[in-house]
């Protein structure tokens, strides 16, 4: 047996104090964000903490009732939009003692329940749930147990805070842009939402509704054409295959997410068509993929990094003050036009 | 204050038993993987567990000394190769009670120390460290505290298991392919490794060495041309800019990772050159990005999913038997040729 009962000595507050050449009291004050520390002192202590990889011991943190960990649940690490959100969360927390642990690969209510129960079991100080599909009552349950911020759902909950973008406005930006270019047959690929209780909250459903409203506003009600798949590359691929097989195929496809647009571009290339000469494509999320030069995808920027920063800020405020009123932030999206959209073929 | 002291009742083993219409003893047996359960019984219980989102309570698990969580540290969630590895880990663990928690965004030894300390604090049952940059002594420290598998480092440690691909062979596959197509001026973009103690273990350094060996084997020693940046999209972009500015620019670029190739393709497009007519590009990792039709990148397949499965298998074996001899798996890579490589321009 290896000597598991006597692990190597861990870095202590004394080591940090010696390394930073300050007193242990000073280290303790900095770590608690207490008053009476100078910026220079804080800088010295944080540098020593970073260099030694120090974390307050579980026991010491337990005494204060905190684990200094934040759980972030995200549905799909392949979707580059979630990396943007995570960057914002990480950035906001980088000056704090909080460490993020991710619960990945959720693809349904059961998986989400398992991830959130794990985070609660581990006594995490708070959780950020990105684009959860769980029922509202399940989210309320989580939020009544641990400080919770929900990202990417339009909520009016009084138990948890939320951050989302204005998906009605975002969808309208795309339709306006394509209609201005002269398109009429503008199709949309949505993520199928079957639960009636969730439809009013889910960004995918709201984006589809925004598309419908904008098409009507442009007098294009008869050209509304929605294919329901999923917000995945495969979903975009299958959705585009359906649209390309239409007797009068659309001249533009509005994919509900950049990762969906990836699959759309793939189906278009396989069909021997070119973008934007034969067909225009727009996405949603303005990920690094959209900005990738050989792709150059027109996309709605919902400021993922800012969403992440806001979520982290709300969560720290909630941890500090459990009974503060729930805040619901809606960020206004913008459109970034690139080479994938142009006037329709004559 | 919200009633944090009295959280809603959690799902118990009794709920699972009622839902599955079996005895609580039967549920307990299935959860412990004990003998004397039929396949039908296991299926019923697992279905109920999934539907209710049940996890053994922290207390019950604590009594058995397990938390049923596995920590996975990964350096960059933007690199699609790590998603492949994670898929393999998730797949292998999907039939078990283990839940994965990810420690993301490590970019140096201090960040890695913080993540691994957090995982140890949380009493995780085991950790998988993907492409860590920490010193060998730091990895030994972690492994002496918690069962550990290291992925993507060539190790002979006696304290932890490891899984990596044969990077010398992988680099040779690329050079052989390009040389066979008629290329001589084949350049390589590597991830700079400055620590002499780590060079023998790091896949990036070994890939560069494999490139050198293969170039010499083809009589191309004078054409060896390595640019040192990082394994990121930005690193590929900056590396390719340097190479394209050479008086006699290379006819082929071997990027050390697919994510590096992304940046290479970007720089080439900005320079007004086309792939493969003006210049061939090959990557490493065979990610979904390489397989993406509009990109179609020739790439080395190091079987990320299989790497993940192997890592999870080794970890569960190590958790079950702490003093088993350390195992070091080397998987043989293969080359997937696509449209991004062709004969050099005349």
Automatic annotation (TrEMBL), chains A, B:
Signal peptide (residue range): none
Molecular functions per Gene Ontology: DNA-binding transcription factor activity; transcription cis-regulatory region binding
Superkingdom classification of source: Bacteria
Domain HTH lacI-type: 11-65
Alphabetized InterPro entries for the sequence: HTH_LacI (IPR000843), LacI/GalR-like_sensor (IPR046335), Lambda_DNA-bd_dom_sf (IPR010982), Peripla_BP_I (IPR028082)
Keywords, sorted A to Z: DNA-binding, Transcription, Transcription regulation
Pfam families named in the record: LacI (PF00356), Peripla_BP_3 (PF13377)
Keyword DNA-binding: yes
CDD domains recorded: HTH_LacI (cd01392), PBP1_LacI_sugar_binding-like (cd06267)
Protein name from the UniProt record: Transcriptional regulator, LacI family
Organism: Micromonospora coriariae
């Amino acid at each position: 047996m290896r000597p598991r009962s006597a692990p190597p000595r861990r870095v202590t507050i004394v080591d940090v104090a010696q390394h930073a050449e300050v007193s242990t009291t000073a280290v303790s004050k900095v770590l608690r964000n207490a008053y009476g520390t100078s910026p220079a002192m804080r800088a010295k202590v944080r540098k020593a903490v970073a260099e030694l990889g120090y974390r307050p011991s579980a026991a010491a943190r337990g005494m204060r009732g905190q684990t200094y960990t934040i759980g972030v649940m995200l549905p799909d690490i392949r979707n580059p939009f979630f990396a943007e959100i995570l960057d914002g969360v990480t950035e906001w927390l980088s000056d704090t003692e909080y460490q993020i642990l991710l619960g990945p690969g959720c693809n349904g209510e059961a998986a989400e329940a398992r991830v959130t129960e794990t985070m609660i079991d581990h006594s995490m100080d708070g959780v950020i749930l990105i684009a959860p599909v769980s029922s509202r009552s399940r989210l309320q349950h989580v939020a009544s147990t641990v400080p919770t911020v929900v990202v990417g759902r339009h909520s009016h909950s009084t138990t948890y805070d939320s951050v989302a973008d204005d998906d009605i406005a975002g969808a309208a930006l795309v339709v306006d842009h394509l209609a201005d270019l002269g398109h009429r047959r503008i199709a949309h690929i949505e993520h199928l939402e079957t639960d009636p209780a969730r439809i009013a909250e889910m960004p995918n459903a709201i984006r589809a509704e925004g598309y419908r409203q904008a098409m009507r506003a442009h007098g294009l009600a008869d050209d509304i054409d929605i294919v329901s798949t999923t917000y995945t590359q495969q979903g975009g691929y299958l959705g585009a295959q359906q649209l390309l097989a239409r007797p009068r195929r659309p001249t533009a496809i509005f994919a509900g997410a950049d990762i969906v647009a990836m699959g759309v571009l793939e189906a278009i290339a396989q069909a021997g068509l070119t973008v934007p000469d034969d067909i225009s494509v727009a996405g949603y999320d303005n990920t690094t993929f959209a900005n990738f030069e050989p792709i150059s995808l027109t996309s709605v920027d919902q400021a993922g990094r800012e969403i992440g920063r806001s979520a982290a800020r709300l969560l720290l405020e909630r941890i500090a003050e459990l009974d503060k009123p729930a805040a619901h932030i809606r960020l206004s999206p913008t459109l970034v036009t690139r080479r994938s959209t142009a006037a329709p073929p004559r």
